[in-house]
């Protein structure tokens, strides 16, 4: 096979278009020429007996170019193997035949650990560094094991009296869980599928170019396709959590919004797209591309029911009047006009006359009355029309509709979001009161140091929870970050689930919620009259190989990396595809790799099915799961 690749390379190098000035072979130029059925390339391949027989089929005496087969050869790593690929071939991590097995349905290509990669760079701006990215080619049964429910350990229940180990999980408990959010979501499904009313997430944004004002301060230099698959994995699981009429709100940047919208339409169904809502992030900036300051990011909102359902809305605190003419029936005023013009509703274009005073109130050509000339008397006799002179305490200049409170209560419909004039505070919160600086200030007030950059402000999340959930509903945020969503949910009387992988979940997220229980008065506390109280449970996915992932990410020198390598080989948790003895036999090739490639190799060597401990392996003595952790895990999954 190798000789054939060399033959192809020798043939292609005869065309100067495919070789750079420094002699480098230009693979992309060849691929592009093949896709365009370039005559020069085809003649070149026909000139060689071997390439002619491999890439052309004879159809009634005519040579037909098989550009798919040719493209496969050009794009195969073995065509121009580097030292790292050759090493992986030798030890068995790569299929020696070089077949594109993903095209045969034998495997699934998965990118489940993008957040593991981001862990290395989620530090301060001046500490960004090159990350290791690893994706895996896994058989479907491997994916199933990968997403199997995990053991939950180190469970603690936090209340106003402090914290203590938890051995059981109650249905009304709030939950904060540490671990890879893809695996955490797959574990949570057993308990929470179809039960979550509202999901709000603020995931890593896709940036075309990193800048000092990135919402996230970690490395955003990854491919769009990778970011989309990363999001796809998680959104497909998130959809399963929504209760009927539930909604998911995805905070996203301008760069990634339109790509994500197309993919999310496929996941949730385009017919379930609720809308796009802008969020103002700042008050303008100079020195920006094209001299246009893009001061917004966006909320994409989806549901799982048809557009005839009221999936969002708010209970409006309306002003009701009590008068002697309607004893025991409080009433309010409502608009008596229609959005239809006179040419659309001619029967509603008339002058309304107050029967008591004779005063005239002509209709507008652009906005006619909501009743017709024929039905006016019927509604007036029912008391459904109020004139300016009917009550001394009213300050109105035209007729209004009268709505009784008992009808409002029976109807039960929520006021429509945004369009209802009484709840424009929703727009005010999103457009003007939810800037990045507001979130930063709230974190600074709680921790008096720069613990977390660009946390979302509490009033943004409150505005969403207000219109998309009610007290007692379950809400979720599986990119929990600094814990804004959980803090708002706690204060607003929602049950909540928060998932975060990074270590600051203990130093920031949990500590923030402890302050919430203690009655802190930042964020929305005064608006909801928060006095403290409540509780939450914190637990972690039981790590196995994930501990090695953490170590590999943190290693900075060859000696420490060698120690990690030795521990890995002794652990028995390396990929089943390779024999440790074979790795040792190829030590010379391993030592010749760059430090970066050595880290990359160790990451690929780990058996990804063993990142965390599966519940089915909980009783295996090798994993040393304590009786307390076993009891909590069984309680959580309803097996106690």
List the helices and strands and how they pair.
Elements: H1 2-12, H2 27-35, H3 39-46, H4 49-55, E1 56-59, E2 62-65, H5 67-75, H6 83-91, E3 108-110, H7 114-121, E4 136-138, H8 140-146, E5 152-159, E6 162-165, E7 175-178, H9 181-192, E8 196-201, H10 224-241, E9 242-252, H11 254-268, E10 273-280, E11 296-303, E12 331-334, E13 352-353, E14 360-361, H12 376-381, E15 385-386, E16 400-404, H13 405-411, H14 425-432, H15 436-447, H16 458-468, E17 474-477, H17 484-491, E18 495-500, H18 504-517, E19 536-541, H19 546-554, H20 558-571, H21 580-585, H22 587-592, H23 595-605, H24 627-636
Parallel strand pairs: 7-18, 7-19, 8-9, 8-17, 17-18
Antiparallel strand pairs: 1-2, 3-4, 5-6, 5-19, 9-11, 10-11, 12-16, 13-14, 15-16
Helix pairs in contact: 2-5, 7-19, 9-10, 10-11, 14-16, 16-17, 17-18, 20-23
- Give the overall form: extended
Tally of alpha and pi helices: 24
Total beta strand runs: 19
Main beta-sheet strand count, sense and barrel state: 10 strands, mixed
Question: Unreliable segments (pLDDT under 50, ≥5 consecutive)?
Answer: 96-107, 111-134, 211-221, 417-423
The SS-based structural class is alpha/beta
Distance between the termini: 57 Å
- The average pLDDT score comes to 82
